[in-house]
Give the backbone structure.
Amino acid sequence: MYFYKEFFILTLEICVSIFVIIFGHAIWDNFDNSKHLFAKQYDNIKEVEVLLEDNDKIVLSNNEQDIKPSILYLHNINKNTNIVNLIIKIDKNYNLFKNNTILKIDNNYYDLNNSTIKEDNSFYYIYIDKIKFNGYETKKLNIKILTKENTNINIKNYLNYEFITQA
């Protein structure tokens, strides 16, 4: 009697296992993996996210002591080593920023007028520096925007720029 009970339970377990395998295989074969394949094509993308943390009070000055540093965060979103160009993108309508600005990034000074410049119909792309990242690394850079000469221009128009990266 005990043998028949064990045999019945074991047979039931085998039948349920076979049912789960067959039913699971049918679901797996009919699974739409297009979203998975779409996400997989971005697996090795070499991109760096950029976030600029601005000050509450922005001062345009050629005196470095008057200016509080802004913080620029750069984050490698890939597990691989990545080397990118740090670029500042400026609207062509506001040439004064390009001609009158010196960037201080950490302890290095960059005169925007003397840097490598590429342009399209709307923007100037000024190449600042090459930065090397390890996998998923975040770099924090202190930035000060110094002017060569004091300007009497609307600060909103003067500070019409954006930091971007390019692999």
